[in-house]
Design brief:
By secondary structure, the chain is an alpha/beta fold. The chain has one domain: Rossmann fold, CATH 3.40.50. Helices cover 45% and strands 12% of the residues. The chain has 11 helices and 7 strands. The chain has helices at residues 12-23, 45-58, 78-98, 120-127, 131-142, 146-149, 152-167, 191-194, 200-209, 220-230, 249-253; strands at residues 3-7, 27-32, 38-39, 65-68, 105-109, 180-185, 242-245. A 7-stranded parallel sheet has the order 3-2-1-4-5-6-7, sandwiched between helices. The radius of gyration is 17 Å and the shape is globular. Bound molecules: nicotinamide-adenine-dinucleotide (NAD).
């Protein structure tokens, strides 16, 4: 059996992933703000370090895969810290440990939103690894109200998908035999979308932005199954990709533009 670290394990996609992997007989170490094996805050550098150290300790020093699901969609710069730096710094800390596995894997959760309008300046600051500057830009957006502030979210996911593409072929990941990929869900029925989907106007707005002609909104386990495969021994060569698991939303919106 394999040992997995899953972030965001207390709710939604992370919880479904942890459950699925356990059902299949694997060892799972969950990381979340609360209700998890490791309770830590991935929005800060200290929290990321504590989370990585404790998770590796609980794993007895050997980890086969990391699946990073923790994320928020608030129209504030905290979103950039959790969704980008809380994933990339956490993974970078764990890569040397993963390298000790016979079949190491790393997967992150991006979003359909990675294709939505974003702030290129903010995306660049994240990819430059400059969290202070990114937070500054994110705050300026947030100061202009929730609609502009929302750009923090698609920007964080665009940067994350681009980071996966770049890093997947680096010495740290490919060089250590670690396939690194992202899954981009459409609309998933979790705590994140609950409020939005509670009213007909909310549903209309969501469905206009993320049209899902195939089977509609998904349960979190749908995403969990794909994350589990990408993190499994079976995936030896898929790398650097963002896989849209979105009921056809990407095919609808982006069409031929790939
Ligand atoms: P969720 O709110 O159900 O779960 C997110 C989990 O992340 C929560 O348990 C939360 O406590 C944890 N988390 C948040 N901030 C944290 C922090 N600072 N440190 C540690 N843990 C933290 O949401 P979800 O829908 O399961 O979202 C999981 C991922 O999927 C996110 O990255 C989200 O952006 C992405 N996503 C979700 C949807 C959707 O429709 N639900 C669509 C596309 C992408």
């Amino acid at each position: 059996t394999r040992t997995y670290i899953v972030t965001g394990s207390a709710s939604g996609i992370g919880a479904a992933t942890a459950e699925l992997l356990k059902e299949r007989g694997n060892t799972v170490i969950g990381v979340d703000l609360r209700n998890a094996d490791v309770e830590a805050d991935l929005s800060t550098p200290e929290g990321r370090q504590i989370a990585a150290d404790r998770a590796v300790e609980l794993a007895g020093g050997s980890v086969d895969a990391v699946i990073a699901c923790a994320g928020i969609s608030a129209p504030i710069p905290l979103t950039v810290s959790v969704n980008f730096f809380g994933v990339t710094e956490f993974l970078d800390r764990l890569a040397p440990v993963l390298a000790g596995s016979e079949a190491p894997r790393a997967v992150v959760v991006s979003s359909m939103a990675s294709l939505q309008p974003n702030s290129p300046e903010l995306v660049d600051a994240m990819l430059a690894g400059d969290e202070a500057l990114a937070r500054q830009i994110g705050q300026k957006l947030a100061d202009q109200g929730p609609q502009i502030g929302y750009l923090n979210y698609p920007s964080s996911k665009r940067a994350l998908s681009r980071w996966v593409r770049r890093e997947s072929v680096s010495d740290r990941y490919a060089g250590n035999g670690i396939p690194l990929n992202a899954v981009a869900p459409g609309t998933v029925l979790t705590a994140m979308t609950k409020e939005l989907l509670a009213t007909p106007e909310g549903v209309k707005m969501v469905d206009e932005n993320v049209p899902m002609p195939l089977n509609g909104h998904s349960e979190p386990v749908v995403i969990a199954r794909l994350l589990a495969w990408l993190a499994s021994e079976e995936n030896s060569h898929l790398a650097g990709q963002t896989i849209y698991c979105d009921g056809g939303a990407d095919a609808t919106l982006r069409g031929d533009d790939i």
